[in-house]
Every structure is written in structure tokens, then in C-alpha cells.
Amino acid sequence: MKALMHRHQELCERAVDPLEIAAGLEAHGITDRTAARFRHRDVFSLAEEMYARVSRDGDAPTPEAPAAPRARTDWALLTLLPGTLCTAAVAAVHLTHGRSRLFAAAAGTLAVALAFRAALHRGPLSRPDRTVPGRSTTRTSWLVAYALLGNGLLDGAIAGGPDSLPTGTADGPWPLTTTPVLALALACAPAAWTAHLFTARARRKLAASRGLEDFAAAVRPLLFGTFVLFLGALAALLTLCAAVLDEPAAYAETLTLGALLFLARLLTTHGFAYAPAVVLTATATLQAAALAAVFTSRLPGCGFLATPVETLVTTWGAGSVPALACGTAALALLVHATRKLTRASAHAPPEPSR
């Protein structure tokens, strides 16, 4: 016990209650099995003894419990920027023709990408450690690009094309589906607010809980509620965008992609970046493999490669490929999130830098 106290002395001295020590121990890999070696039934019981044993300076003021994060105007406005710029870009593409449309699309893509970068750098969607570069940008860009161009390319490839490059319209030989991308850009603000709501409520429950199991039981419905709230906001935005642009809503592929990106970001903001990176990579790879299988099937003796994709597209449409890939990935991340984001260590305040 003395060695354990010495190893976590700083954690014990700054803790305001045993639950904060338990969260810190859990973050350092201390489990109930480890606690049993010290004759305690679980980590929280061990934390209670450590909290009682630690020597504190009687003259020092008792540290206050960590306050829940508050909404700030800077990140609230930044989350509106991607949707605003994407709306302007879509309008510019629809109102221009020829080379002007190409310039408008290129400028709009760059502006929206920079807006997303700014929105993800501040506020509840930002990484806890900004010194570590993000590794999911390429995968996310591919998934969004597929939502814009993938279905049209897949349909054209199965039909023997495409015979030309995209013209920026929904009725061309390689049609664009702008509704999902616009809805996802507008959903950046609801994603930030729901993530903020989840973090703030979880911090309050962390302060009020009396054990790790109690905290997990309280946070689990909060996580599901936050997830459903975001999907509801995305569905409403998708319906609105489809009505304004007079395009199909594509609910299945858009909602599954939105769920995947939201869960991946929520896990990343709480320090669990590995699983989202792996799942996003697998999803992007699966979508690329579906396209590659159709094009490879044109080689002599390789026609069988496209059979699964063609069967799927013929039965449920081209949107079934991203819907199946993103839906499976989102379900895997949701299961992972219920394990990771219900831990007290995921919501413990960051340790002060030395």
C-alpha cells in the first residue's frame, strides 16, 4: 500500500473525494483484480482507503470540485461556420456553369475543409491533447467524398462507365449527391452542442456518484440519449436539405455516416483515438474495395469479383454499400463507447502539467 500511495501521491493530494482517486487509478490501469491484492473488493474501496491515508496540509485550502465545462461563444460560432460555408458553396455550384462551376466547387471545398479544421480545434469536439496530430483526417475526407461522389461512380461503373468527369449536377453521367454533405456540414453545430451536453452532464454525475458502478449506470443512458439526440438533429437537417435541393434524402447512408463520425469524434475527444482510427480506416477500405471490385471485374476472368457488389446494388441501390459499411462500423463504435465512455477515468479532470 505504501508503494501504491507513493506512486499516486500527487493524485491523492489534489483529489477532492475518493471517486476522483478511483477515476485516476482506473486511468492508470488499476482494476478490481489489482484492488483485491490490497484486500479490497473493488477500485473504489481502495480509493477510499488511499483518500483517508493521504496526509494533507491543514493550512492549505481544500480544492474545489472540478466544474462542468461551459459553452463559449468562440467555439459556438466556429461550429456554425462549416454549415454556412457549405451552404454558400452548394449555392455557388448550382448557380454557375462550366469553368466557373469548377472554381466555385474547388474554393468551396477548401473553405469548408478549413472551417471544419477550425471547428474541431476548439470546444467540445477538440482533441484533449492538441500536440498529437490527428490521424483520422484522411479517412474522414474519403468517407465524406464518397458520400458526395461514390454512389454516382458506383452506379456508372456497374453500367459500364463513367464516360466523363462529374459536371457538378445531380442528373449528369456522374451525378453528385450534395444533400448528405450539406446536412453533415450543418450538423457540426448539433454535434458540438450534444457533445458539450454529454461532457457537462457526465462531469456533474461524476461529482455526485458514490462509486464507479453507480457512475457507469448513470452515464450509460446519458450516452444513448446524446447519440439519439444528434441523430434526430441530423435527420431533421437532412429532410430540410433534401426539400430545398429537391434531391433524395438518402437517410440510410447519411444517418449511418453521421453516427459513425459523431461516435468517432466523441471517443477521440475523451482520449480514445485508436479504435476510431481503426474503424474509420476499415470503413474507407471497404468502400474503396467495393469500387475496385467493380472496375477489376472488367479484366478477363475476373467478372466474379463484382458479383457481391452488383447483387447489393441491384437489390437495395448504390447507397446500400456505404450504409452497410458505415452502419456496421457505427454499431461497433457504439458498443465500444458504452465500455469506454462510461468509465470515470474518461471524464476525470486532466492532471496538471509539471
From TrEMBL:
Keywords on record: Membrane, Transmembrane, Transmembrane helix
Stated name of the protein: Integral membrane protein
Organism listed in the record: Streptomyces afghaniensis 772
Highest taxon of source: Bacteria
Transmembrane segments: 75-96, 102-120, 141-161, 181-200, 221-245, 251-267, 274-295, 315-335
